[in-house]
Amino acid sequence: MPTEIEELVEFLHHGNTQIRQIATENLVPYSKTQPAIFKTGQLSPVRDLKLLVKDYSPIAHSALTILINISADPEILKSLAEDDLFLESILNRITNPKEANATLFAMLLSNLAKSDSFARLLDLKRPSVRTLSSTATNAFDQLLDLFNKGVGGSYNPTSKFEYLPYLFADLAKFPPISTHLISPSDPNNLPLLTTFTPHTSPPTLPLPLRLGSTAVIRNALLSVPSPLDNIPSLIPHLISPLLLPLIGSDPAFSESETDLLPPELQLLGPEHMPETDLQVLNNIVESLFLICARGGEGARKSVRDMGTYPVVREVHVGIEDEGIRESVERVVQLLMGDEVEKPEDEMAAEKGKQERITGGREQEDDEDEKIVEIF
């Protein structure tokens, strides 16, 4: 005899709207405590939930919340991420400027990017989205345009799309996508990676936005194939945004050290707030390391000439976290050593320390890698 919860699951495909709404709302808590109930009947409830994201807004809200919470399950993740029709449904809705559940769609996309199959977004052709005023014809670039236009809330008043950087951070681990972010197709355009630099600080920005954006930069620098001829051209656009959140409100710089800093970093007032989240700080310091290790001697000189050493020195002095202190020490060794030997070997050692390779793709346990869950 079916239990009460199992009977509730059966109501997900009921013809009565009110009954579907009651069923989805009451099943949300069980998506955290008993996710296995959604795997019955060869994932029949998951198939129902895929349809319900297109239902009336309150029903779609609950259905999306359930899918977000259960998408950590490998079998469910595969069912969701590899379903082209479901993906197209998500893309249609998240790019609709009137979509009331846009933030939840962004959270679901960020979870689905844990599947290697999502690398297909770069090659997934779609009609241009008129409301985005974009000429992009692939899903990845359309989502990037959506992030650029929507992050301030001007595209869709219901969402700031602060969870989309988690999606890009996961996808940046694929070499074709990291190359796409770092190497502009038009030499007159800035690399797409610079899209994320305005969101690395200050701490008043939402944490998902800062954490995701710094993870995109780190992961792209880590996975882009050698040779890295474009890294020196990235430095003028990356270093200042990466250093800004590292500088304290009252840094102990000498006059000559201050003069080395980019002009926009020299006159920070007492209202300036440094980054305090350890995950974000770790992403930033690792990004600096990767620029130095993978960019060659010319890149290290440029980074050094922009006043990076006194900034990371003060981070080392002021922070207690041993992991970040060690990362800072590696940056200093590259910046200040008389001669840095085999930077690519050291970068590879760092990569081996931070990641587990599964089928050529990095799998990390950092906060930006975790499945987003909703209570």
- What is the mean pLDDT? 88
Globally, the shape reads elongated
Give the helix proportion (percent range): 55-70%
Q: In whole angstroms, how far apart are the ends? A: 29 Å
Structural class: mainly alpha
Side by side, the strands of the main sheet go: 1-2
Low-pLDDT residue intervals, each spanning 5 or more residues: 338-343, 353-365
Number of helices: 20
CA-based gyration radius: 22 Å
Strand content: under 5%
* SSE pattern, N- to C-terminal: HHHHHHHHHHHHHHHHHHHHEE
Largest beta-sheet details:
2 strands, antiparallel
Number of strands: 2
List the helices and strands and how they pair.
Blueprint (H helix, E strand, L loop, with lengths): L3 H7 L6 H11 L2 H4 L6 H13 L4 H14 L3 H8 L2 H11 L7 H11 L26 H12 L13 H8 L3 H8 L24 H17 L7 H13 L11 H6 L2 H4 L11 H17 L1 H10 L2 H11 L3 H15 L6 H12 L1 E3 L2 E3 L12
Helix pairs in contact: 2-5, 4-5, 5-8, 8-10, 10-12, 11-12, 12-16, 13-16, 13-17, 16-17, 16-19, 16-20, 18-19
Briefly summarize what is shown:
By secondary structure, the chain is mostly helical.
Could you describe the 3D structure shown?
This protein has 375 residues and is mainly alpha-helical. A hairpin with a 2-residue loop joins strand 1 and strand 2. Helix 2 packs parallel to helix 5, helix 13 packs parallel to helix 17 and helix 16 crosses helix 17. The two termini are 29 Å apart. About 5% of the residues have low confidence.
Entry keywords:
375 residues, elongated
